[in-house]
Design a protein that fits this description.
Elements: E1 8-10, E2 20-26, E3 34-41, H1 46-60, E4 198-200, E5 206-220, E6 225-232, E7 237-241, E8 244-248, H2 249-260, H3 264-283
Antiparallel strand pairs: 1-2, 2-3, 4-5, 5-6, 6-7, 7-8
């Protein structure tokens, strides 16, 4: 077996009592490196044994960073605060799992099934979530900065207050997602589906986005940041840049006039606004 084919190993050559089976959790980088070993009740189905071993490991304080848990059945598991940095959870079943506050930085979750999982406050910075199924997941306040979410299904997910700066969301489905208070600065959204997603403006007004309801322009401005433009279902345009907004594009341009006047940055922002209007008209 290669490290990409195993998540936990049952050792047939290891001594065990008739009622237990030894289960090992190994490193994704080196299958010979055992991160945790436990005797698991033999009456538990094999996939359930892996879950039991993980829970025992976390309870004992074992470090599971870089663990190979590919394809593991962790449905409904209590993984709150777990340190799973760099772990391989590709294709794992995490439906309804509680991962609040978990550290998943740099973890591989490609194709993982996370429907309804609780990830509030979890750190997924730089994690690979390409093709992951996150429909209805709870990601409020989660850190997804720089995460790779190409083709991920985030339909109806709660991303309120989440940080998505620099995240790759090309082709992702965010239809009906809650994006109120989320930071999408610098996120790559080409081909992302946003119809029905909810966004909260700086004056606490809620808007509903159109299907291709967001674009990013940058680097721009004196700080070389990213200007986010949002398009509502009714065609209204809204801007967010740094601490400004989201607010109407007209309000943004007034702020630009006050701050930059006719300098180069002001001209760049006004040109960006014209491009945003043309982009919106092309969708009408």
């Amino acid at each position: 077996m290669t490290t990409t084919e195993i998540s936990a190993v049952e050792r047939d050559d290891a001594p065990a009592t008739p009622d237990t089976v030894p289960v090992e959790i190994v490193s994704r980088w080196d299958a010979k490196r055992v991160l945790f070993r436990a005797e698991i009740d033999a009456s538990i189905p094999m996939l359930g044994r892996i879950k039991a071993a993980v829970l025992l490991a976390l309870k004992s304080g074992a470090y599971l960073g870089g663990a190979c848990l590919r394809g593991a059945d962790l449905r409904g598991a209590d993984l709150r605060g777990a340190d799973l940095r760099g772990a391989d959870l590709g294709g794992a079943d995490l439906r309804g799992a509680d991962l609040r506050g978990a550290d998943l930085r740099g973890a591989y979750l490609g194709g993982a099934y996370l429907r309804g999982a609780y990830l509030r406050g979890a750190d997924l910075g730089g994690a690979y979530l390409g093709g992951a199924y996150l429909r209805g997941a709870y990601l409020g306040g989660a850190d997804l900065g720089g995460a790779y979410l190409r083709g991920a299904d985030l339909g109806g997910a709660d991303l309120g207050g989440a940080y998505l700066g620099g995240a790759y969301l090309g082709g992702a489905d965010l239809g009906g997602a809650d994006l109120r208070g989320a930071d999408l600065g610098g996120a790559y959204l080409r081909g992302a589906y946003l119809r029905g997603a909810k966004l909260l403006l700086s004056d606490d007004t809620e808007i509903t986005l159109s299907d291709r309801g967001a674009m990013s322009i940058g680097p721009i401005g004196s700080e070389g940041g990213t200007l986010m433009i949002y398009r509502a279902e009714d065609g209204g345009l809204y801007a967010q840049r740094g601490c400004f907004g989201p607010a109407s594009l007209d309000e943004f341009l007034l702020a630009v006039d006050e701050t930059h006047g006719e300098n180069a940055h002001g001209r760049a922002y006004r040109a960006a606004a014209e491009m945003a209007r043309a982009w919106s008209e092309a969708q009408a």
